[in-house]
Amino acid sequence: MAFAVGTALNLGLVVAQVVYGLAAHSVALLADAAHNFGDVLALLLAWGAAWMGQRLPSARRTYGWGRGTILAALVNAVVLLIGVGAIGVEAVHRLQAPAPVSGGMVIAVGLLGIAVNGVTAWLFSRGHDDLNIRAAFLHMAGDAAVSLGVVLAAGAIMATGWVWLDPVASLAIVVVIVIGTWGVLRDAVNLSLDGVPGQISHAEVARYLAGLDGVEEVHDLHIWALSTTHIALTAHLVRAETADDQGLIQAAVRGLHERFAIDHATVQVETRASAAACRLRPAEVI
Question: Would you state the torsion angle of the CA atoms of residues 260, 258, 131, 173, taken in this order, to the nearest 10 degrees?
C-alpha cells in the first residue's frame, strides 16, 4: 500500500511541476520535476524488488528474479542522468538569457512538493531493516529538502527581482541529483559485473573464514549479489584432515549470515591433499 500511495502522489506532483514550471518559466521547477520523476522510478524499482523477491526459483532461473532489481537500478540511474543533463543545458541557456519567473506559482508548487515528499517519507519511516524501504525513506526525505530549495529560490527572486537565481537553483539541484545518482550508477554497475557489494569487505570475510576452528587456508572465495538485498558466497576451506566437516560448514554458514548478512553461502571443505590438486586454488583462477 505504501508503494502504491507514494508512487501515485509523486506522479501527480511531477505532472503539476511540469505544467506549472512551463507556465511560470521556472527551470528550477522543471529540474525538481525531473528529480521527482526519478523518485517515481525509484519507488517502482523498490516495489518491483519486493514483488520479485516473492517469486520462487525455477529450473530455468535457479536464483529467481532478484537480479532484475540490479538491472532496474542501472536503467533508473542512466535515465535520470540523461534527464538532468537536458535540464542542465537549459539552465545554462537561461543564465545567458534570463526569463521572468512567476515566483508565487513556483512557491505554491514547491510547497506541494515538500508536502508530497514529506508524506511519502513518513509512509516509509518504518521497516528500515529492509534496505529497499530504507533507501526509499532517505530518498523521499532528501527530496523534501530539494523542494525547499526551490521555494527559497523563488522567494529570493520575488524579494530581489534577480531572475538568474532560478537557473542557478536548477543547476544546484542538478548537482545534488548527479551526486546522489552517481553512487547508484556505480553500485549498479558493480553488482551487475558480480562485484563484491559495497557493504562487504572481501578481506574481512576471508579473515573470518580463516579463523574458524581447524581451517588452514581459504581459496576460491567469491562474493556477489543475487539482488539488491541478497548476497551469495562460495569458498573452499582447507584443513589438515577430514574431521567434523558438516559442523565446520554449519558454523561458517551461520557466522557469515550473522556477521555479514550473507544469506546464500556454499562452502566446500578440502584436505591438504585435495587442496593441492584443486585447480581453483590459484588466486588468479576463476
Answer: -40
The position carrying cell 538485498 is 229
Number of domains in the chain: 2
* Predicted confidence band of residue 207 (pLDDT cuts 50, 70, 90): very high
Examine residue 197 and state whether it is found in any structural domain, yes or no. no
Tens digit of pLDDT for each residue in 89-136?
A: 877 887 787 766 666 777 887 788 888 888 887 877 775 555 566 666
| 274 DSSP assignment | H
CB 131 within 8 A of CB 66: no
Q: Could you tell me the CA-to-CA distances from 44 to 40, 48, 49, 137 in Å, in that order?
A: 6, 6, 8, 14
Q: Return the beta strands (E) in the chain as ranges.
A: 215-225, 231-239, 264-271
Judge if 89 and 169 occupy the same domain. yes
Domain range enclosing 230: 202-276
Are residues 14 and 40 in contact, defined by beta-carbon separation less than 8 angstroms? yes
18 and 73 belong to one structural domain = yes
What tens digit of pLDDT does each residue of 7-22 get? 888 788 788 878 877 7
Cα–Cα distance, 175 to 49 (Å, whole number): 28
Are 94 and 151 members of one domain? Answer: yes
* Grid coordinates given for 17: 511541476
Judge if 145 and 253 occupy the same domain: no
- Residue 39 in domain: yes
